[in-house]
Specification:
There is one protein chain. The protein is of the alpha+beta class and about 300 residues long. It has two domains: about 10-115, Alpha Horseshoe (Serine Threonine Protein Phosphatase 5, Tetratricopeptide repeat); about 165-300, Beta Barrel (Porin). It has seven helices and eight strands, in the order αααααααββββββββ. The protein has an eight-stranded antiparallel β-barrel. Helix 4 packs antiparallel against helix 5. The longest helix has about 55 residues, at about 95-150. The chain is rod-shaped, with a radius of gyration of 57 Å.
Length: about 300
């Protein structure tokens, strides 16, 4: 009797020492799993126990459920053990190998969940940082826009130069002309083309132009013409149309239409070319045609 008692004491003494003071562990050791489950369910929530003792209680609760064949509940308790007490390990010297393997599997499952949650948290933190950076960039952009709006408007140096030089112009001109009919220049047989040289001035605003030309000739038969016309476009080459009135001393007055071109290769100089048709009131017996066609070419210097 003494020998049997000694053997039982040596076998169960370490287990009893590790189990105390948690209720239910002794029931597990006796094989009374129902009672062990009932007691250990209360112990895992017992606030009076230390974390270490509650971890031991959950370990034995899982072992008791496993011994009763309740595998799913046993696995759930082992996963909860790994979550709440990740440092707790199931001792392979006290529990069956299959239960130890199930505990290792539960530990790996929880570790995978933990890594997944950590990855989600890191991703959420990254999104938060990116959103903060985007907000900071947007705030800086709004600040710069507000500063830009607050600055007084300043004319760009190029804005004045962008204005077309023909917006306002005052242009002296020198022209050579020819009239079919010999009205303006003597020294040619009456009714035949003649040549002459004249001077004039043009004032323009935008496309509109008005001008006057003095047409000197021998024998005091000088002429004076005035025009009002419009030059199309704003480039260096401008077609134009005009109405002209001309008076020639000792001959008469007339008027008609003119078409021509203005070419401005540089800002100051303009090349002129015109063709016009005018009808004159010629005194009876004068050796001149009433309808005169004129052509002129010349150059102008833009003072403004």
């Amino acid at each position: 009797m003494t020998l049997r008692f000694l053997c039982c004491f040596l076998l169960f003494a370490p287990l009893a020492t590790w189990a105390a003071p948690v209720r239910g562990i002794d029931s597990y050791a006796r094989g009374d799993y129902e009672k062990a489950i009932s007691s250990l369910r209360q112990e895992v929530e017992n606030a009076a126990l230390s974390d270490k003792d509650r971890a031991r209680a959950r370990t034995y609760l899982a072992a008791s459920l496993y011994a009763r064949g309740l595998m799913d509940e046993a696995r759930e308790q082992l996963e909860e053990l790994a979550r709440r007490h990740p440092e707790q390990r199931v001792d392979s010297a006290r529990f069956p190998p299959d239960f130890v393997a199930l505990a290792d599997l539960a530990q790996k499952t929880v570790e995978t969940e933990r890594l997944r949650e950590q990855a989600r948290a890191e991703e959420a933190e990254q999104r938060r940082l990116l959103a903060e950076q985007a907000q900071a960039r947007d705030a800086e952009r709004q600040r710069l826009l507000a500063e830009e709006r607050a600055r007084p408007a300043q004319a760009s140096p190029s804005s004045s130069s962008a204005k077309a030089p023909s917006s306002f112009r005052f242009r002296p001109e020198l022209v050579g002309f020819s009239d079919i009919g010999g009205v303006l220049v003597s020294g040619a047989e009456a009714g035949r083309p003649s040549l002459g040289l004249g001077a004039g001035v043009t004032l323009g605003v935008g496309g509109w132009e008005v001008g006057a030309r003095f047409l000197p000739a021998p024998e005091s038969r000088w002429g004076l013409s005035v025009e009002a016309g419009y030059a199309f476009g704003r480039g260096s080459l401008q077609p134009r149309v005009a109405l002209r009135g001309t008076g020639v001393r000792g001959v008469g007055v007339g008027g008609g239409a003119v078409v021509g071109l203005r070419l401005t290769p540089v800002s100051r100089f303009t090349l002129l070319a015109d063709v016009g048709a005018e009808r004159f009131r010629i005194p009876e017996g004068a050796p001149y045609r009433a309808l005169v066609v004129t052509a002129s070419v010349g150059v102008g210097f833009n003072l403004f």
